[in-house]
UniProtKB/TrEMBL annotation:
Pfam families: Amidase_2. Residues 201-248 are annotated as: Disordered. GO terms for molecular function: N-acetylmuramoyl-L-alanine amidase activity. It comes from Streptomyces microflavus. This is N-acetylmuramoyl-L-alanine amidase domain-containing protein. Gene3D superfamilies: Peptidoglycan recognition protein-like. Residues 214-240 have a biased composition (Low complexity). It comes from the Bacteria. One of its GO terms (biological process) is peptidoglycan catabolic process. InterPro entries: Amidase/PGRP_sf, Amidase_domain, PG_bind_dom_phiBT1-type.
Length: 326
């Protein structure tokens, strides 16, 4: 049981897990909070849309329809593996479900599957799942024949792991709609136990972005001998777009580095700078106060907003690459 992530912290968690995200206009304030509680949250719920096409599916999940107003989830995961964010609050996705399932998901003490649900939306004793679960709608017809591309399954895994990692949950906090409500069948086409296995494996390692596949080397034509290699020629490594997280010890050593200047400029651009002069290359108390303001903007509180950079908040800041850190 946990307090829902703020919009900024949800976005930071997804980015840190390597999720490709599209933010749709107004998603931070598009919700159903006026109709009921949003939180405390207990897990992540996976659905299929029974639709095709990214644009049409996103529009449906954002706006809903007469009988079920939107938003119908927090994010739509399309077949290309992109997560389209449409809400950061209460959404009409889960409906009523089994309180016994909620207890086991909260305790994370079930085996391969949570107990089979006996309740559904409108049944006696059903629990309001819209208050308790993040929801991801995945673009699929749900007929058992529509394929689930590798990129889409990877995005479901990463998005689920991102939220679990942010809350300190295990993969047992990730369930399908059919595991919550006796009246539902989604998602259809892959099994939730297999997805929980994938999420478990991902959570066992630090969060990292996906590795882009390397293009295969084209063989030389037989009539053209290969040029001799030049062992003295310098190599040209690819320069990263953003500064990788240099580790907590980099900052506690109070370094003097262009990385600190670049960080300070980004903090100022985000409205978190507390600099009287600067920012400059030497780590100072002004840097720590500014970074604490950034952590609070992301939704961190208490000891998690102490001003010392961590990987999740650093990746969300997107500091331009300036130098290799020793």
């Amino acid at each position: 049981m946990a307090t829902p992530l703020t919009a900024d912290r949800l976005l930071a968690a997804l980015h840190a897990e390597g999720v490709t995200v599209v933010e749709h206009p107004g998603w931070r304030t598009h919700h159903r909070n006026h109709k009921g509680a949003w939180g405390p949250v207990n897990g992540v719920m996976i659905h299929h849309t029974v639709s095709s096409g990214s644009a049409a599916s996103v529009a449906l999940c954002r706006d809903g329809y007469a009988a079920l107003p939107g938003p119908l989830c927090h994010g739509v995961i399309d077949k290309a593996g992109t997560v389209h964010l449409v809400s950061a609050g209460r959404a009409n996705h889960a409906g009523g479900g089994d309180p016994a399932v909620l207890r086991r998901v909260t305790a994370e003490d079930y085996g391969d599957r949570p107990p089979a649900p006996r309740a559904h939306d409108g049944s006696t004793g059903a629990v309001d799942g819209n208050a308790r679960f993040y929801g991801f709608e995945c673009v699929n017809l749900g007929n058992g024949r529509d394929p689930w591309p590798t990129a889409q399954l990877d995005a479901i895994e990463r998005a689920s792991a991102a939220i679990c990692r942010a809350h300190g949950w295990s993969a047992r906090s990730v369930i399908g709609h059919s595991e919550w409500s006796a009246a539902k069948i989604d998602p259809r086409g892959f099994t939730m136990p297999s997805m929980r296995t994938r999420v478990t494996t991902r959570l066992a390692a630090p969060a990292k972005p996906p590795t882009k596949p390397t293009k295969p080397t084209q063989p030389s034509k037989p009539t053209q001998p290969a040029k001799p290699s030049n062992p003295t020629a310098p190599t040209s490594p690819t320069t990263p777009r953003y500064q990788p997280f240099p580790g907590a010890s980099f900052f506690t050593a109070r370094p003097s580095s262009p990385v600190i200047t670049a960080m300070g400029r980004r903090l100022a651009a985000e409205g978190c700078g507390t600099y009287a002069v600067g920012p400059g290359p030497r780590w100072t108390e002004a840097d720590r106060r500014s970074y604490a303001a950034w952590q609070r903007k992301l939704g961190f509180r208490g000891s998690e907003a102490d001003g010392w950079p961590g990987r999740t908040s650093w990746n969300a800041l997107k500091v331009p690459y300036t130098a290799k850190v020793p």
